[in-house]
Amino acid sequence: MKWFEGTVDSTLALHDLPQSLRYLPVIESGYSPVAVSRANAVGLWQFMAPTAKGLGMEVTALVDERRDPLRSTEAAAVFLGELYEEFDSWFLALAAYNSGPGRVRRLLIRYAPLEPRTDRLYWELRRYLPKETREFLPKLFGAIVVAGSPTSHGYELLEPDPFSFDEVSIPDATTLDVIARAAESTDAEISRLNPRYVRGMTPPRRQVSVRVPKGKGGVFYENYASIPVDERVSFVEHSVAPGETLSHIAVLYRVSVADLRAANPDVRPRYLRIGAMITVPVSTGLKRETKPST
Q1: Cα–Cα distance between 50 and 66 in angstroms, integer?
Q2: Which CATH superfamily is domain 235-281 in?
Q3: For a surface tag, which of 69, 108, 142, 165 has the fewest beta carbons within 10 Å of its beta carbon?
Q4: Where in the sequence numbering do the catalytic residues fall?
Q5: CA distances to 152, 204, 210 from 207, in Å
Q6: Could you state, in order of their start, the residue ranges of all structural domains in the chain?
Q7: Tell me, which fold does domain 5-153 have in CATH?
């Protein structure tokens, strides 16, 4: 919690939501912005892709705002507020958050169409909910109890470490290792500040914001301006050989097909042209314009 609890607390307060909701990410993701469930829910608040997109978050091959602690927390606050406004009960709203509002609506129509929407009604309907949702509120209550006295439950009390940064603009595709070098920081720190860039690079042909360590914005702009445009992405340029597909190329360079498609948005995989140049995002250990040994 130490990095993001301030962000969560201030956002909940801004939306006039109960502060106890700060413990939702504890049971959802352990406060990890890169957590992925077996059902492919992602981020602090464990959003499914359709829900996230419906709340205005970007979910693409290169950018997944479910992993962004600021963007996803704002979306979660809006979503939770909407659920409470609809169901008029925090217990019902949280059941809808976990299992989907459609499921709770159907249960209410079927079993309690004329009943007032209360927390008591949740307990009456609880047996009809999936096992995971039945356990959701007890887990939240448990997290609240433990958080009230963490040391007595065997947890170390950590000092808050604010999620602070400078925000800079990136005009085109740039890999995070290059951003780290320009910001005179580390790859790990830039990745920690920017978990939404899932492939380690910003999208091509558009301006986006990137976070760098607090106080590093000025030096970043100075250093970034001196990096030639064609050196802002750590990549290999691969010339398509006869019979090759994106899958062949992905195996050759030990990257995923999704990475290749994200780095080459204009390429039509079924119509690869012999001699066409494919951009392959790779680790900094592979030199640009150098094919791996086979």
Answers
A1: 11
A2: LysM domain (3.10.350.10)
A3: 142
A4: 28
A5: 49, 8, 10
A6: 5-153, 166-231, 235-281
A7: Lysozyme (1.10.530)
